[in-house]
Specification:
Layout: E1 3-6, H1 12-23, E2 27-32, E3 46-50, H2 56-66, E4 71-74, H3 89-117, E5 120-125, H4 138-158, E6 163-170, H5 178-182, H6 195-206, H7 214-226, E7 233-236, H8 238-247
Parallel strand pairs: 1-2, 1-4, 2-3, 4-5, 5-6, 6-7
Helix pairs in contact: 1-7, 2-3, 3-4
């Protein structure tokens, strides 16, 4: 029986991905900054571990407690919406610490066991904002685009060793807590010049066309984990698939 370790499982994509792998009979290690046993059904194949991907000691402890795994899903992330000039550098650093450096650090911690075994899969969840830019998301987009570049280069590095590396790119997902999680970082005042633009962005979020559901992301991650023939980039969600086709 194979084992997957998923980061950021308290809600959204990570939580749905953990459910998906449990339903399909895998051992699941669901990690969260603040572990909550009530978000997933009890199972002898489920372990919930504390993990802050921005903290080296937390990563070391989680990897040690997890033991051997077959698939790593780097899903943990934080959002930020707002004009660049209104964002303090410590907030920008937090975004990169979690979204970019956290993904790199988790991967670096797991790769040795994959290399020694000659098998394993790393799946990084980013976003379709890296395919088509949106205003007021410059920092968030940069943090995710860096992961895209990291993933594609790492795939070439690890493929000769029998280790697969893949990207999953979700679109707009109203059923996640992206906005709620981003709100504490939106306290900084942006100049009034951006007010109209901010209103348009929020209107677009409230009245979307095709969207991405959390289950779409979970199914894309499952496909990336189990099908060696899937492409490097897997769009997840109807809007993501449409956009990927447009920019191809």
């Amino acid at each position: 029986m194979k084992t997957v370790l998923i980061t950021g499982c308290s809600s959204g994509f990570g939580l749905e991905t953990a459910r998906c792998f449990l339903d399909k009979g895998w051992n699941v290690i669901a990690t969260m900054r603040t572990p909550r046993a009530d978000v997933l059904p009890p199972s002898p194949r489920l372990r919930i571990l504390p993990l802050d991907v921005g903290n080296a000691e937390s990563i070391s402890q989680a990897i040690s407690a997890a033991g051997p795994i077959d698939v790593l899903v780097n899903n943990a992330g934080v959002g930020l919406l707002g004009a660049l000039e209104g964002q303090p550098m410590d907030v920008i650093a937090e975004i990169f610490q979690t979204n970019t450096l956290g993904t790199i650090a988790m991967t670096q911690a797991v790769v040795p066991q994959f290399r020694e075994r000659g098998d394993g899969v790393v799946i990084n969840v980013t976003s379709t904002v890296t395919l088509r830019a949106l205003p007021l998301l410059a920092v968030y987009t940069a943090s995710k685009a860096a992961v895209n570049a990291f993933t594609e280069s790492l795939a070439l590095e690890l493929e000769p060793l029998g280790v697969r590396v893949r990207l999953v790119l979700p679109g707009l997902a109203p059923d996640t807590r992206f906005g709620e999680n981003a709100r504490p970082r939106m306290q900084a005042e942006s100049p009034e010049a951006y007010a109209a633009l901010l209103g348009k962005v929020f209107e677009g979020f409230q009245n979307p066309g095709p969207i991405t559901r959390s289950i779409d992301v979970a199914e894309a991650v499952w496909q990336a984990a189990t099908d060696p023939t899937v492409p490097m980039r897997l769009p997840a969600g109807e809007d993501a698939r449409q956009l990927a086709a447009e920019v191809a």
